[in-house]
Design a protein that fits this description.
P-loop_NTPase; 8 helices; transferase; globular; ATP binding; Chloramphenicol 3-O phosphotransferase; alpha/beta; Rossmann fold
């Protein structure tokens, strides 16, 4: 049930595309107690006008620099919304892929951490080896390796940059655990009473 006099819990699942974030988020919504809203990159992109897409889903590489100021505002808007959900007693699960691989550093993760300051936030790193990511990309989108057998540059950049600075409250590896098992591990961590502090550290840490 909704507890309007209590701050909602926020779980941020951060990882590359095809790392399994969305599947974990879906299971959290279905199995955790209370009301869990799902707000992340896919939902936000659906709201974004076509001419500004992929919006916050823009991959690393600095390919569309003219879009970057808008992306920074979009991220701020999304996290301001997340903070309001929590303040109204709604739990939120967020699947996103934070990186700072733009044409110039935008420090978006640091800004978002400051927006959520004082709220109960667990920052979870969703890891997945590059060979498994590539296998999932081929199954889902029928796109894979370059003709010379190398990993496409944008995919390699995602893998390299999405976990900077690598400060998390916990990490899960979706090549080792199923989505259901990852959701259970996260719930266990939530219930152990330890105070999440990753975003508090990130708030005061500039990504190099």
């Amino acid at each position: 049930m909704l507890e309007v006099d209590k701050l909602g819990t926020i779980i941020i699942l951060n990882g590359t595309p095809r790392s399994g974030k969305s599947s974990i988020a879906s299971i959290i919504q279905k199995t955790y107690e209370g009301v869990w809203m799902n707000l992340g990159v896919d939902q936000f992109m659906q709201m974004t006008p076509e001419r500004f897409r992929p919006g916050i889903g823009l991959r690393p590489g600095g390919e569309i620099p003219e879009l970057e100021p808008v992306i920074k505002v979009m991220y701020r808007a999304m996290y301001e919304a997340i903070s309001q959900f929590s303040r109204l007693g709604l739990n939120v699960v967020v699947d996103v892929g934070h990186h700072d691989g733009y044409s110039a550093p935008l420090r978006i993760l640091t800004d978002c951490a400051r927006i959520l300051d004082g709220l109960p936030v667990m920052f979870v790193g969703v890891r997945c080896p590059i060979d498994v990511v590539m296998e999932r990309r081929m199954k889902t989108w029928n796109v894979g390796y370059n003709t010379d057998g190398t990993v496409p540059k944008p995919v390699a950049l995602w893998q390299k940059l999405v976990h900077d600075p690598g400060i998390y409250d916990m990490e899960v590896d979706t090549s080792v655990f199923s989505s259901d098992e990852c959701a259970k591990l996260i719930r266990h961590e939530l219930e152990n009473g330890k105070q999440p502090k990753a975003l508090q550290l990130i708030k005061n840490t500039e990504i190099e």
